[in-house]
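Posting for a labmate who doesn't have an account.
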Amino acid sequence: MEFRLMQVINLMIPLLPYIMEILMVELELKE
């Protein structure tokens, strides 16, 4: 179970900047 969680986290970490950029764009579009 824990190993599975670590795999998910390891996959998500490289995507974090991309996800953050998308969130920022979404916020800018809403204004």
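Reply:
Got it, the structure tokens are right above this. DSSP finds one helix and no strands in the chain.
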